[in-house]
Amino acid sequence: xxxxxxxxxxxxxxxxxxxxxxxxxxxxxxxxxxxxxxxxxxxxxxxxxxxxxxxxxxxxxxxxxxxxxxxxxxxxxxxxxxxxxxxxxxxxxxxxxxxxxxxxxxxxxxxxxxxxxxxxxxxxxxxxxxxxxxxxxxxxxxxxxxxxxxxxxxxxxxxxxxxxxxxxxxxxxxxxxxxxxxxxxxxxxxxxxxxxxxxxxxxxxxxxxxxxxxxxxxxxxxxxxxxxxxxxxxxxxxxxxxxxxxxxxxxxxxxxxxxxxxxxxxxxxxxxxxxxxxxxxxxxx
Length: 285
Known about the structure:
Blueprint: E1 4-5, E2 15-21, E3 24-29, H1 40-55, E4 61-66, E5 71-73, H2 78-82, H3 95-118, E6 123-127, E7 130-132, H4 134-140, E8 144-148, E9 152-154, H5 168-175, H6 179-188, E10 192-193, H7 194-200, E11 205-207, H8 210-224, H9 229-244, H10 247-261, H11 265-276
Parallel strand pairs: 3-4, 4-6, 5-7, 6-8, 7-9, 8-11
Antiparallel strand pairs: 1-2, 2-3, 9-10
Helix pairs in contact: 1-3, 4-5, 9-10
């Protein structure tokens, strides 16, 4: 069955939001003629979409992909960025004031991409084709990453004269087990393959095609949507907290979180259904 437009999410210019199955949203970057390269309006839309999905009771899992066969995203649209003179305010502006404007601009950009990570619902990112620069920033914010065998990854910022500043350098070292590998690909800006991404743990699955990768993501998302939304949200929250805090801090946070969360009726529903050997159903959150 073809995916249906998601009610309430049809007004976005650069993203398609559909529902391939109940309680699952598919967010598709929709600028394939430009390899899904981002300019400012796009990252603002992305942030707005994920802020809304985060609290939408009709969504329990999200799949994020790129339209077209050539690219998930080629990263920042450097032509659009270079023409945005308003960011710095012209040649005669004091350097400190230029820096203040640029700092706010970067903060807005970072914040929009971080909405993918802040989303309360699990996010599965499906990468294919050209997946460079901003593709790594975005996918590092996802909970699960899968890709097609033809995916070409790269952290390209060094090759355009800057250090990556939208999240890769903060998140990628925590997403894989080797800081040596992270420094290798970030300092050299070299391409790496789907097989290499799987070997270091950056992705958890590699599929023969984009279609196969999407199908696997949709299947996982549909399965997640059958789980208790209280349990899924809590698990994502506590795992992300664990990544960024010491064990004792996470145990303390978990104690406080679950003191409220275990009072949910979802626990009773799950236990009862297990005893009765039937599939549980859970109320919207």
